[in-house]
Amino acid sequence: MKGLINLEEVPQNLSESIKHSIASYFSGHPDSIAEIPLDIPETSPPFFKKIWQACRTIPPGKTQNYGWLAKQAGNPKAVRAAGQAMKKNKLPLFIPCHRVILSNNKLGNYSSGGTNMKKFFLNIESGGAYE
User: Fold this and answer.
1) Catalytic site includes residue 97
2) Residue in 5, 38, 73, 97 annotated catalytic
C-alpha cells in the first residue's frame, strides 16, 4: 500500500491536499480522509496490514466489532490480534480505529485518547449519535 503518508514517521509538512482533507473532516465532511493513500511499512505484520485495510472500509459514523475485522482479514478467530492491530495503529484518523467497538456494542477502550476521544470522532462522523 504505497501512498502519501508513511506510518513510521508522520511528515512535518503535510501536503496541502491532506491539510484540506483533515480540515474538511473536522468541518463535518468525514468522507474527506477515506481516500488518502497510506504507505504502510513493509515491516508491519501482514495480518495487521489486512486489519488496517479492513478498518478503512468502515464508513464514517458506522461501527464494526473486532470479530468483523478479524473475519475481513481472513482469520475470524484472531479477534485479539485485531485488537492488537488497532492498538498499534499510528494514524487513528486515517485508519479509523474509533469505528471499532466490542461485540456487545459497547465502545470499549481507545488507545488514542480514551473513550471520550472515541465518542468525539464518532460524533463528528454521525452528527452526534454517540452522546
Assistant:
1) yes
2) 97
